[in-house]
UniProtKB/TrEMBL annotation:
<feature type="domain" description="Nucleoside diphosphate kinase-like">
    <location>
        <begin position="8"/>
        <end position="146"/>
    </location>
</feature>
<feature type="binding site">
    <location>
        <position position="110"/>
    </location>
    <ligand>
        <name>ATP</name>
    </ligand>
</feature>
<keyword id="KW-0418">Kinase</keyword>
<feature type="binding site">
    <location>
        <position position="99"/>
    </location>
    <ligand>
        <name>ATP</name>
    </ligand>
</feature>
<comment type="similarity">
    <text>Belongs to the NDK family.</text>
</comment>
<feature type="active site" description="Pros-phosphohistidine intermediate">
    <location>
        <position position="123"/>
    </location>
</feature>
<feature type="binding site">
    <location>
        <position position="16"/>
    </location>
    <ligand>
        <name>ATP</name>
    </ligand>
</feature>
<keyword id="KW-0808">Transferase</keyword>
<feature type="binding site">
    <location>
        <position position="120"/>
    </location>
    <ligand>
        <name>ATP</name>
    </ligand>
</feature>
<feature type="binding site">
    <location>
        <position position="64"/>
    </location>
    <ligand>
        <name>ATP</name>
    </ligand>
</feature>
<protein>
    <recommendedName>
        <fullName>Nucleoside diphosphate kinase</fullName>
        <ecNumber>2.7.4.6</ecNumber>
    </recommendedName>
</protein>
<feature type="binding site">
    <location>
        <position position="93"/>
    </location>
    <ligand>
        <name>ATP</name>
    </ligand>
</feature>
Length: 156
């Protein structure tokens, strides 16, 4: 996922089916763009059960795991993205807000738009290693763009 701690750091961010269904895609993308992050990859898809299970493999023992996989694969698509820039993993988590929207800062995506942990709109990688794993899982290397925004001193 780029290089940790540099302007090339990358995070995997996914708008879940509730975010697509509620037509919040543009508002969510704007938060990352306006902060200064660079969109390196984006696609809309309904993940296969295998992909969803692998993405959430750390949670396979949890009681909500099957319901979570079922929801992510239900047929309403997700928007999978890779964002790049300085400290994007940690700052991405701050933009997204706490896992339980009831604990999320009101200025965060979850704090502004969600109230239920099972419908918390969005996922963002929580660490460099998971970002690397998730980007590799959701995207082929050739799907990741390498380009210079017109003016991009903000997150270098
Ligand atoms: P995410 O991976 O989606 O960014 O969420 P997270 O790291 O903030 O939270 P994590 O603990 O990894 O949980 C992953 C997702 O599982 C769903 N969840 N449901 N009690 C429940 O019903 C419950 N707890 C967690 C949420 O969608 C959470 O984002």
């Amino acid at each position: 996922a780029g290089e940790k701690g540099t302007a090339s750091e990358r995070s995997f961010v996914m708008i879940k089916p509730d975010g697509v269904s509620r037509q919040l895609v543009g508002k969510i993308i704007s938060r990352f763009e306006e902060r200064g992050y660079k969109l390196v990859a984006v696609k809309s898809l309904t993940p296969s059960p295998a992909l969803a299970r692998e993405h959430y493999s750390d949670l396979s023992a949890r009681p909500f795991y099957n319901g979570l996989v079922k929801y992510i694969t239900s047929g309403t698509p997700v928007v999978a993205m890779v964002w790049e820039g300085k400290d994007v993993i940690k700052q991405g988590r701050r933009i997204v807000g706490a896992t339980n929207p009831q604990d999320a800062d009101p200025g965060s995506v979850r704090g502004q738009y969600a109230v239920s942990v099972g419908r918390n709109l969005i996922h963002a990688s929580d660490a460099f290693d998971s970002a690397t794993k998730e980007i590799g899982l959701w995207f082929a290397p050739e799907e990741l763009s390498d380009y210079e925004p017109i003016a991009w001193p903000w997150v270098m």
